[in-house]
Design brief:
- With 368 residues, the chain is an alpha/beta fold.
- It has 3 domains: 189 residues, HUPs (Rossmann fold); 54 residues, SH3 type barrels, CATH 2.30.30; 79 residues, Translation factors (Elongation Factor Tu (Ef-tu), domain 3, Beta Barrel).
- 26% of the residues lie in helices and 29% in strands.
- It has 9 helices and 17 strands.
- The strands form 4 sheets. The chain has a 6-stranded antiparallel β-barrel with strand order 12-15-14-13-16-17. A 5-stranded parallel sheet has the order 3-2-1-4-7, with helices on both faces.
- Helix 1 packs parallel to helix 2 and helix 3 runs antiparallel to helix 4.
- It is globular, with a radius of gyration of 22 Å.
- The termini are far apart.
- 43% of the residues are buried.
């Protein structure tokens, strides 16, 4: 074993995880690469060219890096675990009138657990991924921070990781910008990898059409839910829709009803198959509740704490005060109104660049 030890690297076949594996190998780690197959394209019920982290091309790309550098590479089939948990939750959340965060769930409950389990089997002290984020030990806690490249920062999807798993995790790309990683791949002689495009799709919804995916997973969903109504904020019927799971909070396009002014989805009521529409002001919220709270930087919050709260991945964030109300819940008060608070999405709290913690936006919010 090398002086730096043995490390298991999650390799998707993309530029970030590939450069991660090569960096660690060149630094003197004994690298073992592993590619996790979470989904197969044919199961999605869609047509077209297979792309993304679970495609055969991506697996072959990851393996070719390992062969070139001379370290072992394994393929780990976790489709059963992934499907039972992540995909079932994805469908259930839409049927409950919420907007799910499958990548957060996958990281928290599937990928990291699978990586740590295999790391133990392969006698690896650490695991590493190509996320643009950082982790450090401070005050007895393992703290996740934003990556140097704020335009690529992925700390938002890491808030659910446990302290036990963070203790064994390394993010080698945290101190680099994406442009530097592309240059690094080029300089290492991997020109094709340096120019490889990125996929922003959910791995099991490769055409980015979650509505079509729901139709393949829930038999007769269109017939069961067709004919629901749009109502305004006064509860007056103003049109018909195709079924509440096919709409998301903040949606304006695709309503297929003319109102003479911009209208947005402001609330979804699954029990009555009703979708509430309002104007932009009706999307503004100053408070919300969070469930499934996981604190990262602190063990608990003994008093109201000022943080920057992000309610979406690309949300720049809004200053707010978070008050922990139980071991797994919190109330959030925003300093300024925020738009399109969507139940089911992740709320992530920051102090500077550090992740204080995060949770899922609860449906029980009603103050404007």
């Amino acid at each position: 074993m090398s002086k730096k030890g043995r490390i298991l690297v999650a390799m998707s076949g993309g530029i970030d995880s590939s450069v991660t594996s090569m960096m660690l190998h060149d630094e003197g780690y004994e690298v073992i690469g592993i590619t996790m197959k979470t989904w197969d394209y044919a199961s999605s019920g869609t047509s077209g060219k297979e792309t993304g982290c679970c495609s055969l091309d991506s697996i072959n790309d990851a393996r070719s890096i390992a062969v070139e550098k001379g370290f072992p590479h394994y393929i780990l089939d976790i489709r059963g675990e992934f499907g039972d948990f992540v995909i079932d939750n994805f469908v259930d959340e839409y049927l409950a009138g919420r907007t799910p965060n499958p990548c957060v769930l996958c990281n928290t409950h599937i990928k990291w657990e699978a990586l740590i389990k295999r790391a133990d089997m392969l006698d690896c002290e650490f695991i590493a991924t190509g996320h643009y984020a950082s982790v450090r030990s401070e005050g007895g806690r393992y703290v996740v921070s934003r990556g140097k490249d704020l335009s690529k920062d992925q700390s938002y999807v890491l808030w659910g990781l446990s302290q036990k798993n963070l203790a064994r995790t390394r993010f080698p790309l945290g101190n680099y910008k994406k442009s530097e990683i592309r240059s690094m791949a080029f300089e290492m002689g991997f020109k094709e990898l340096a120019n490889k495009s990125e996929s922003y799709e959910i791995c099991f919804v490769p055409d980015n059409d979650y509505r079509a995916f729901l139709k393949t997973r829930v038999e007769g969903i269109e017939e069961k839910l067709d004919g629901g109504v749009f109502v305004n904020t006064k509860n007056e019927v103003i049109g018909k829709h195709k079924g509440y799971p096919f709409y998301t909070i903040g949606q304006r396009k695709g309503l297929e009803v003319a109102f003479g002014k911009p209208m947005y989805v402001t609330e979804i009521k699954p029990n009555t198959n009703t979708v509430v529409l309002g104007e932009l002001d009706d999307l503004q919220k100053t408070e919300m509740k969070v469930r499934g709270l996981n604190l990262v930087k602190y063990e608990s919050l003994s008093k109201p704490t000022e943080v920057l709260t992000k309610i979406r991945y690309k949300d720049p964030g809004t200053m707010s005060v978070i008050t922990q109300t139980s071991a797994n819940s919190a109330d959030v008060e925003f300093h300024a109104p925020v738009t399109a608070v969507a139940p089911g999405q992740s709320a992530v709290f920051y102090e500077g660049n550090d992740v204080v913690g995060g949770g899922f936006i609860d449906k029980e919010y009603d103050k404007v």
